[in-house]
Amino acid sequence: MQIRILVTGEPPEPLKSQYGDYPAMFERLISPYSARLSFSATDVTKGEPIPAISDFDGLLITGSPAGVYDGHDWIAPCADLVRRTAEAGKPQVGICFGHQLMAQAFGGKAEKSGKGWGVGVHDYKIAAQREWMDPPSNHIACAVSHQDQVTELPKGAQILGGSEFCPMGVLDFAQGPAISFQQHPEFGHDYGEALLRLRKGRIPAERADPGIDSYKGRSDRALMGKWIANFFLQHGR
C-alpha cells in the first residue's frame, strides 16, 4: 500500500541533519507496524506538483510553519487534494497543519488561538473509540507545537479526542475515511525538546520551560504510529 506524504514544511536546518526530514520521521514512526506500507513524498513548498489520485493509496499531510489562512499558493491545491482524496474513498491522515487543513477543506475553520502556544507533551483524553485504535487507550500523551487550532468543525465531523487547551485535537471526518491529530507523533522526545529549546526565544519562558520538562515524561507516540498504520490498512484497497 503506497502512502504519499504531502510535505508542507521541514525541520529547522540546525536539526534536520541530525533528525532527518518529516518523511523520514513518519516512516520511522509507522513502518514498523506493517511491511505492507511503503512511502513516497511530495514537497509542495518546493514547487513539486500535487500528486494525482492514482499515484497513491493513502495520503498523509505533515505539519508546517504556515497557517491554513496564509496566502501561499500551494495551500488551496492541497485543500482540493484533500477533498478529491475523500471523494475517491482513499484514506488520509492529517498532522498539526494537516489536521487544520483537512478541517478547513471539509468546511470547518482553523485560526490562531487566543490560548497562545501549545508546546511540550500534551495529554489528550480519548472521547470515542474506533476499530483502528488497537490496542485501545483512554489517553494519548504526545508532543505538540502549535499556535493555531481547529475552532469550527466541518459538518458531520466527530471529536475523537482533545484536551482543555485543545478541545478538537483528534478528529474523524464524515467525508472520510479521514482522520487527523493536532499532536506530532512523528516527533521523538529528543527532537521535540531540541526544537523547543531552539524556539525558546520566540516562545514565552512560562510556556517553554514547563514544555521542556514535560519531555522527561511518557509518550504514546508509538501507540499513535500503530493506530495510523491500522487506519491505513483498514481502509486500504
From TrEMBL:
One CC-aspect GO term: cytosol
Extent of the signal sequence? none
What is the name of this protein?
Answer: GMP synthase
Which species does the entry assign this protein to?
Answer: Hyphococcus luteus
Sequence ranges assigned to domain Glutamine amidotransferase in this UniProt record? 26-190
What's a Pfam family this protein contains?
GATase
Which domain of life does the UniProt lineage start with?
Bacteria
Kindly give the InterPro entries that the UniProt entry links to this protein. ChyE-like, Class_I_gatase-like, GATASE
